[in-house]
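Thread: flavin-adenine dinucleotide complex, take 2
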Amino acid sequence: MPTVTLLAHTPLPAGTVAAAARLCYSNADIAAVSERMQGERADEFVRMLAGLGHESPIEHASFTFGIEGVSRTFLAQITRHRLASYSVQSQRYVDKRDFSYIVPPSVRENPEALAEFEACMRRCAESYERLAELLSGGDPQKRREILEDARFVLPGACDTRMIVTMNARSLRGFFRQRCCRRAQWEIRAVACEMLRLVKEAAPVLFENAGPPCLAGPCPEGKMSCGRMEEVRAAFRAAEKE
Ligand SMILES: Cc1cc2nc3c(=O)[nH]c(=O)nc-3n(C[C@H](O)[C@H](O)[C@H](O)COP(=O)(O)OP(=O)(O)OC[C@H]3O[C@@H](n4cnc5c(N)ncnc54)[C@H](O)[C@@H]3O)c2cc1C
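Output below.
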């Protein structure tokens, strides 16, 4: 299972957002606006902004996550979200000899598929090692230089870790797409855990955050999972935990 940690976030996220938004409509100086926009007053103001569709002030609150135990396949998906900052473990500089890998649940539940999967991982590891030996001639310094070519045979299942920062507006868009049942299982698991963590840190900024069916009808048309009630119930239950 992936491990997701909320490493850091903007201090007083709701107050910062509320002050930024209040500034737009006020004659008062920034210190006065910031002082007034704290606690419940900030929460009320953030709710009012959401009602108005004034979304840009929530960009002032940022959240930084550590994500571990995920596949390179996951990496390819999350980095499509361009309004974010990423630092990812390098396969160019980190030797992936004896790499760990992520097993999809469908494979784990099927013994024959699991045996095939594990055999494939062993073959990839052997080829990686063999290529590293052939290209470096056994020279450790050269080995470090040629890892960038040996890594071409590493699979999408190969594990990785990363630090990701997104602001609250970008996160809300990310949750809309990736907490939905149509999203692939691994990124959905990570997105749902990220949502749980930011809801603890800044509840008012993430009210109704999650798949679009939490706040209204499903927009997926023919692709809809058709299980909106189940999804809503699951998210409501997660909020109470
Ligand atoms: C279920 C699912 C299936 C998918 N299948 C595929 C697939 O088959 N193939 C594939 O290639 N991708 C696929 N994707 C990825 C998808 O197309 C997006 O690239 C990804 O979800 C990132 O979304 P985004 O662009 O909204 O996010 P971000 O890049 O974070 O952008 C956020 C928002 O900023 C705005 N924005 C950002 N950059 C620009 C820009 N250059 N111009 C204008 N507006 C911009 C847009 O409003 C955008 O929604 C899939 C995603 C999901 C959830």
